[in-house]
Amino acid sequence: MTLGSNSPFADPPPRPSMGLSRQPDPRDSAPSYTVFDLHTSYQVKKNVQLYDRVDNVFDRRYATYGQFFDRSALPNFANGSADFSDPLSPARPRAFYPGMRVTF
């Protein structure tokens, strides 16, 4: 059996939409964050392995820069159909990835 973890820390830079003509303001950036991920595997037989991965174990709420879609394809209903001017996107919540590997 193997067990591992990953705990990335990020301190996002100032928002890209911030004007470059002034000094960076800490309020122009997203808060830093750390997420905790786990992964494990168990060799059942020589050719069969069970595994599982859990991302964001503590379901930490944080934001990252960028969108995962074409911004012009969807109206922004939360802001009166105005353009998406802020490139912050909510990060993924807790996610589970169980599986089985079989080799022949």
What structural keywords apply?
104 residues; mainly beta; five-stranded antiparallel β-sheet
Helical run tally: 0
Helix coverage percent: under 10%
- The helix/strand class is mainly beta
How much β-strand is present in the residues? 35-45%
What coarse outline follows from CA principal-axis ratios?
A: elongated
The total of beta strands comes to: 9
Oligomer: single chain
Biggest β-sheet, characterized?
A: 5 strands, antiparallel
Q: Into how many domains do the coordinates divide?
A: 1
Regions with little confidence, pLDDT below 50 for 5+ residues: none
The overall pLDDT average reads: 77
Element-by-element helix/strand order: EEEEEEEEE
Cα gyration radius (Å)? 20 Å
Give the end-to-end Cα distance, rounded to a whole number of Å: 21 Å
Folded structure, characterized:
This protein is an all-beta fold and 104 residues long. It has one domain. The chain has no helices and nine strands. It has strands at residues 2-6, 9-10, 33-34, 37-45, 48-55, 63-65, 88-90, 95-96, 99-102. Strands 1, 4, 5, 8 and 9 form a five-stranded antiparallel beta sheet that branches. The chain has a two-stranded antiparallel sheet with strand order 2-3. A hairpin with a 2-residue loop joins strand 4 (37-45) and strand 5 (48-55). It is elongated and about 55 Å long. 0% of the residues are buried. The model has no long low-confidence stretch (mean pLDDT 77).
